[in-house]
Design goal:
Shape: globular
Bound molecules: guanine
Distance between the termini: 44 Å
Strand order of the largest sheet: 1-11-8-7-5-6
Strand content: 15-25%
Number of strands: 11
Largest sheet: 6 strands, parallel
């Protein structure tokens, strides 16, 4: 068996087309375009690429982007004052602070300073709490993107056994909450999980976010499972690869996301979705 590929790029393109239409409707009704402020601190090359991709997605959809770039030595007080300024600006709908931040800045404090209604990353405790209570408002982009990707590929969730490998605050944990919300019987595995191979082998839906190339072995995957690989790792030869051993997993799975071209394009698309939602006042 060779799994079918879940084409994140094509599904993201479709979704971005739908968002573009929504923005055109907003403009036709006489309102201004949704606006996203992106805050980049320092010169981390990967962060620069991510922020640039977000800006380009804004342009495609018709969202106004406000790129803000600060020196790596900005103080915490200065950055918080910038967030206060954007919180108070009626012409800004979404605020995104690109992570990671330099060591002198407490990321938790920064995230909590953003008004929940402008928190288009969905990282604020209010938005995570709403997701935990099954009343989501602005949802963390990567987990939301995984659910949308699977739904649009025809996947069903109700009562199915799903596993998340990785329990990070921004990806693994909210991914577990999303799968619960969708009706799956959900297990979250992490560094203290005793028999990871056995947990993976029981799952009908496997979602992996650990950031280690080839961490999940292909022969752990149950025949016919759906495999979603959130990991994006750069190998010494410059190529990108995921957290799952792709070739051997593909022999067993029914559906699998490639890296690149799987979850990645969905994350930025859900950020655009959240910005349009934030502009609509929910
Ligand atoms: N750094 C890596 N991924 C992300 C993301 O989705 N949002 C933010 N704000 N920073 C990131």
């Amino acid at each position: 068996m060779s799994a079918q590929l879940i084409d994140g790029k094509s599904i993201a393109d479709t979704l971005q087309g739908e968002l573009r239409t929504r923005v055109q409707q907003i403009l036709a009704s006489g309102r201004r375009a949704p606006a996203l402020a992106t805050m980049l601190v320092g010169g981390d090359p990967a962060s620069q690429v991510y922020v640039r991709n977000k800006r380009l997605a804004c342009e495609r959809i018709g969202i106004r982007s406000l790129p803000l770039h600060y020196g790596a030595d900005i103080s915490q007080a200065e950055l918080l004052a910038e967030i206060d300024r954007l919180n108070a600006d009626p012409d800004v709908d979404g605020i995104l602070v690109q992570l990671p931040l330099p060591a002198q800045i407490d990321a938790t404090l920064v995230i909590e300073r953003i008004l929940p209604g402008k928190d288009v990353d969905g990282f604020h405790p209010y938005n995570l709490g709403r997701l935990a209570q099954r009343q989501p408002v602005l949802r963390p982009c990567t987990p939301f993107g995984v659910i949308e990707l699977l739904r649009r590929s025809g996947e069903s969730f109700y009562g199915r056994r799903a596993i998340v490998v990785g329990a990070s605050n921004h990806v693994g944990r909210p991914m577990g909450l999303e799968l619960l919300l969708a009706g799956a019987t959900t297990t979250i595995c992490h560094r203290f999980t005793r028999d990871l191979a056995a947990e993976v082998a029981r799952a009908e839906i496997v979602v992996v976010a650990v950031g280690k190339p080839g961490f999940i072995k292909g022969d752990w995957i149950a025949p016919g499972a759906t495999v979603v690989d959130i990991g994006i790792n750069r190998l010494p030869d410059g190529k990108l690869c995921g957290d799952v051993e792709f070739d051997s997993a593909r022999q067993r799975a029914a559906w699998i996301t490639p890296v690149p071209g799987g979850v990645g394009p969905m994350t930025v698309t859900m950020l655009m979705h959240n910005t349009v939602i934030a502009a609509s006042g929910h």
